[in-house]
C-alpha cells in the first residue's frame, strides 16, 4: 500500500511517500480503507522529533482518519464491511488501575495512533475496534477526518473541564484553528456568549459564521483584554479556552473575572510565561490543563456529531503524495479550519 512515513526526525524532506506492507489485524482490530486523514500540529512535532515521539521507525503519520471498514479480527463484533467510520486515536490498555476505575484518560500505558502506532496517512490502517465509531451517511469523509482530535479536545475543554453554562461568556483563543472552530460550535450549542480571537480578519469572519458573537484580531490588537470587556457589557469573561500559550498569557489573566476558569490545551506560541501571583490571590482564578480524554466523552460527542449538530471545518485538501505541501501550509499558519489529506 502507499503511505507517508518517516524513518528519522527532521524537516519536511524527511517525509517519505512510498510503499509499506498492507497491515493485518489482530483479533480485536479492524482494517480501515482510509478515505481521508487530517493534519495536526502533533504531526509536525512527531516529524521533527519534538515532544512525545515514536519509539521506532518507520512510522506512518496521521492521527486523524475516516474511511470504510474492509476487514476485522475474529473477536470483533458490531461492524461489517462497508461501515463508514472515524477513529479515536487514543489507545488505552484496559489493564492499569485507571482503566479499571473508569478513568482511562489517565491510562498509564496509552498509545497514540500516528505516534506510537501507525496512523492514517496510508491507504489502509488497522486500529482497535473499540476506537472505531460509525458516522452518519450525511457526513463526508473529509469532514469526518477533520473532527476527532480537534472536537474531542474542544469537548474536553469546554464541556468536561470548563463546565461551560448557557448564561456564561467564553473567550476562545484562535477561533480559526481546528480546536477553536470546534469550541465555537460546542459553546454555541450550549448557548453561551462567545468572544473569539484570530490572527486575521478573514478568520474572524469565519468564526462569526460558525457562531461567535464577537471577534478580535490579536495581531492588530495584542492588548485585547480591554476589548473583551467592551464586548461583554463592561464585564470580564467566565471562561477562556487557550490553544495559543505564552503570547496571550498575560491578556488571558486580565480578561478573566474573579472566579473565572482558564483551560489551556495548546502552546503554539511558546510554553514559558511569567505570572503575577497577586492575580490568583486577589481574583481566585482556576487554571487548568485539558489533560487526557475518556472514551465515554468521545461517545457523548459522537451522539451530537451524528445528529448533525457539529461540523468539521475543512480549510484545505491535499492528496496523499502532497503531505509535504500540507506540512508547509500548517507551518505557515496561513489557513483556517483543518488541513485534510485524501486517501484512496
Structure description:
Helix 4 packs across helix 5 and helix 7 packs parallel to helix 8. This protein has two domains: 177 residues, Quinone Oxidoreductase, Chain A, domain 1 (Alpha-Beta Complex), CATH 3.90.180.10; 139 residues, NAD(P)-binding Rossmann-like Domain (Rossmann fold, 3-Layer(aba) Sandwich), CATH 3.40.50.720. 28% of the residues lie in helices and 26% in strands. With 344 residues, it is of the alpha/beta class. Strands 3, 5, 6, 9, 10, 17 and 18 form a seven-stranded mixed β-sheet that branches. A six-stranded parallel β-sheet has the order 13-12-11-14-15-16, sandwiched between helices. Helix 5 links the parallel strand 11 and strand 12.
Main β-sheet, in a few words? Answer: 7 strands, mixed
Question: What is the number of helical segments per DSSP (H or I, 4+ residues)?
Answer: 11
User: CATH-wise, what's the superfamily of the largest domain?
Assistant: Medium-chain alcohol dehydrogenases, catalytic domain
**Rounded to an integer, what's the Rg over CA atoms?**
20 Å
How many domains, as an integer? 2
Q: Mind telling me the CATH class of the largest domain?
A: Alpha Beta
Overall mean pLDDT stands at: 93
What best-fitting shape do the alpha-carbon axes yield? globular
**Cα-to-Cα separation, first versus last residue:** 10 Å
N-to-C series of helices and strands: EEEHEEEEHEEEHHEHEHEHEHEHEHEHE
Query: Which stretches are poorly predicted, pLDDT < 50 over at least 5 residues?
Result: none
Output the CATH topology of the largest domain: Quinone Oxidoreductase, Chain A, domain 1
CATH architectural category of the largest domain: Alpha-Beta Complex
Strand content: 25-35%
Number of strands: 18
Protein structure class? alpha/beta
Amino acid at each position: 500500500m502507499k503511505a507517508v512515513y518517516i524513518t528519522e526526525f527532521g524537516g519536511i524532506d524527511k517525509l517519505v511517500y512510498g510503499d509499506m506492507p498492507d497491515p493485518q489485524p489482530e483479533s480485536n482490530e479492524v482494517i480501515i480503507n482510509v478515505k481521508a486523514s487530517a493534519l495536526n500540529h502533533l504531526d509536525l512535532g512527531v516529524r521533527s522529533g519534538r515532544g512525545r515521539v515514536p519509539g521506532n521507525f518507520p512510522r506512518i503519520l496521521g492521527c486523524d482518519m475516516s474511511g470504510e471498514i474492509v476487514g476485522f479480527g475474529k473477536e470483533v463484533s458490531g461492524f461489517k464491511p462497508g461501515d463508514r467510520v472515524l477513529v479515536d486515536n487514543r489507545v488505552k490498555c484496559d489493564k492499569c488501575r485507571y482503566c479499571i476505575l473508569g478513568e482511562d484518560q489517565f491510562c498509564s500505558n496509552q498509545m497514540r495512533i500516528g505516534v506510537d502506532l501507525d496512523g492514517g496517512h496510508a491507504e489502509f490502517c488497522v486500529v482497535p475496534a473499540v476506537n472505531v465509531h460509525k458516522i452518519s451517511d450525511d457526513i463526508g469523509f473529509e469532514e469526518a477526518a477533520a473532527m476527532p482530535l480537534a472536537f474531542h479536545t474542544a469537548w474536553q475543554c469546554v464541556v468536561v473541564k470548563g463546565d461551560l453554562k448557557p448564561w456564561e461568556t467564553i473567550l476562545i483563543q484562535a477561533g480559526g484553528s481546528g480546536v477553536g472552530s470546534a469550541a465555537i460550535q460546542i459553546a454555541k450549542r450550549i448557548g453561551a456568549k462567545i468572544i473569539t480571537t484570530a490572527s486575521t480578519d478573514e478568520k474572524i469572519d469565519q468564526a462569526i459564521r460558525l457562531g461567535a458573537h464577537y471577534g478580535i484580531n490579536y495581531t492588530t490588537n495584542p492588548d485585547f483584554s480591554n476589548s473583551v470587556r467592551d464586548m461583554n457589557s463592561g464585564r470580564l469573561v467566565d471562561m477562556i479556552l487557550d490553544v495559543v500559550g505564552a503570547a496571550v498569557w498575560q491578556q488571558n489573566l486580565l480578561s478573566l473575572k474573579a472566579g473565572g476558569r482558564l483551560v489551556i490545551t495548546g502552546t503554539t506560541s511558546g510554553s514559558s510565561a511569567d505570572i503575577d501571583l497577586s492575580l490568583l490571590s486577589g481574583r481566585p482564578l482556576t487554571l487548568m490543563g485539558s489533560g487526557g480524554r475518556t472514551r465515554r466523552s468521545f461517545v457523548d460527542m459522537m451522539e451530537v456529531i451524528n445528529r448533525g449538530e457539529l461540523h468539521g471545518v475543512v480549510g484545505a485538501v491535499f492528496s496523499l503524495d502532497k503531505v509535504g505541501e500540507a506540512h508547509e501550509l500548517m507551518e505557515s499558519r496561513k489557513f483556517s479550519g483543518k488541513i485534510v489529506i485524501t486517501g484512496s
